[in-house]
Amino acid sequence: MTRSDSARPGDPGRTGFRADIEGMRALAVGLVLLFHAGPVLVPGGFVGVDVFFVISGFLITGLLVAELEATGRISLLDFYARRAKRLLPAAGVVLAASLVLTYLLLPRIRWADTGWDVVASGLYVMNWRLAGQAVDYLAEDQAPSILQHFWSLAVEEQFYLVWPLLLFGVALWAHRRGRTGLPRGRLLLCLALVALPSLAWSIRLTDDEPGRAYFVSTTRMWELAVGGGLAILGPYLGRLPRSVAVGLGWAGLAAVLVAATTFESGTRFPGHAALLPTLGAAAIIAAGAAAGRAGPVALLGRRPLRVIGALSYSLYLWHWPLLVAARAHFGELGPAAGLAVVLVAVVPAVLTHRYVENPVRRARGLRLRPARAIRLGAVCTGVPVLAGLLFPYAVPSVPAPPPNSALTRLAETADAPGALLTPPAPGAAVLGDLPRDNPAGAPVDRVDAVTPDPLAARDDTPTVYAEGCHLDARKSTVRSCVYGVRDADFTVAVAGDSHAAQWVPALQALALSRGWRLVTYTKSGCPFVDLPVELDGQHYRSCTEWNTTLRATLTGPQRPDLLVTSGWLYQPWRDDGPVAGPEGVAALADGLHRTWAGMVAAGVPTVVLRDTPHPDLDVAECVSAHPERLTRCAVPRSAALTGSGVVQERAVAGLADVPLIDLNDAICPTDRCAPVIGGVLVYRDADHLTATYALSLAPRLGAALDNILH
């Protein structure tokens, strides 16, 4: 959402002021704030952003159209000067404050990312940064950015890089042909050229990549274009019959509220679903002039809502950084606590509105000299961006974790197979032959050193990620990497999702020490199973296609001598929806059973690695935040061992030829799972082992495989 360029609240009769639109702003920001405070309050409150898009499209286009009517031209300098002085000073203050909040309250592991988030937000490309992270499986479990809400501002500003230029082109075309009057038809055609492809793409991308579709501007521009179309049609909308306008306005308000109360996080959005709140907001605006006091203005035009509407931009800017900082400091907030933080955000919002927004907006010198406003905007952007670029250097440089590079170096130099490569710290080796209840694996508050450093833990991943062998959710082509002894007589394949990929470091070490050839087949969020599964509430088609091709590969000429697999817990997909609950668990277990039995029947010996415990806590971030109180990062073993491991046990029942290897006693030895064992950080996020700890498990995995193979 943005601060509009419309007239400010005051005398309702003042030209250009729409009390209903000011109230719509209050409604929209209220929905967003309640949703962020606790989704249970308004499960679809995120549609408030869509309401803002329509409002912004209407108001900004209205100003441009009015300028065209009055002068026959558009001053791009004046337009961008107005945008700069209205948006950038307040945004710059919040960007700077977000860096301060990060320094004071957020774990150090998040400092570097926050610095780059400030840069992306200051340059109004935060939506594209978030879109990239939405398809990055490695970023899935990380806490949200303190500046995540800047994505919507970025969408609007990207739209306004394009839209005024199109209007400028239409004005120039009309001028050269000597035409008088506003070419509304041409303007609507320009809008249609933006809106229709954007809507079509929104529907398509939401079906294929909903996470990415939510943030990219190409799926959202149609919503701003709808508002722009209303501005162009303004004179005609004012002629609507009063009864029609009244019904239309109230129906629009009802549509927005229905969307806010019935949509939820699982709703495929934007896509088709965004039509309801977008057209609802458009209906309120379209009906406003003709409906008069009988329309929604009777509710939306009330003074309390107008006051909140006037503060909406500052409220939107401030509420999210305060919520993120509060959650980082106090832990997860309930709805009541979330509401309390939102109320606290009113204080800096009022101060920013009064001492930053209004003085800059009303400054006579900036109005008379647009170039000054542009320069001011450049300063308000440049200073936070520079601070964001420098901020990551506040985090001490941490060397990249060594185990993967060591494995790669050994493989590339073709060293003779021999001794098992050991990690840079003992890790699971301190647990001895009987790890269960071993005191060396119990949680403690402090350790002398942690490897990898928590600040580098995100990069402590299997080599399949850096080498492009681990497929993302969009791809279905089977891709593999080969490790160990490439011309070996014995080939081991590992297949599955990221929970299978996390065992690659241990398998690489074993391949080198035993003279095996190791081939990897892994894909994000995709288990090795002959069963359709869901991803983000829809059929994960690329996973189904990948599995079909992979099964053919594994049972064909490239058949391995041993298949190792593991995986996370997934919901099967049936007909038009996911299968949840006990029925879904049973269906997944049956699918895994069928898949593994099929491999054995095709002559491919198969071993299942029981899935690792799920801390359901970002362990690396927690250790970064509490280096002197590591016990705060320990989780109950009973809770961590539920889920996918139980399903795997059920799936191997009756499969005498498919052994299940369980190394979880060496990952969570005591009744509480320790975040650091033997000086090694166990998890890099909420459920994936660090490559270093996985490597320390290689001797145990090797012993278990030796028992099976011999």
TrEMBL record:
InterPro entries noted in UniProt = Acyl_transf_3_dom, Acyltransferase_3, SGNH
**What are the protein's GO molecular function terms?**
acyltransferase activity
Q: Which UniProt keywords apply?
A: Acyltransferase, Membrane, Transferase, Transmembrane, Transmembrane helix
Top-level EC class, please? transferase
Q: Which residues form the SGNH domain?
A: 469-701
Give residue ranges for domain Acyltransferase: 19-351
Listed transmembrane segments:
21-38, 44-66, 87-106, 158-175, 187-203, 215-237, 244-263, 269-292, 304-321, 333-352, 373-395
Q: Name one Pfam family in it.
A: Acyl_transf_3
Provide the E.C. number(s) assigned to this enzyme.
Answer: 2.3.1.-
Put simply, this protein is called Acyltransferase family protein
What is the native source organism of this protein? Answer: Plantactinospora sonchi
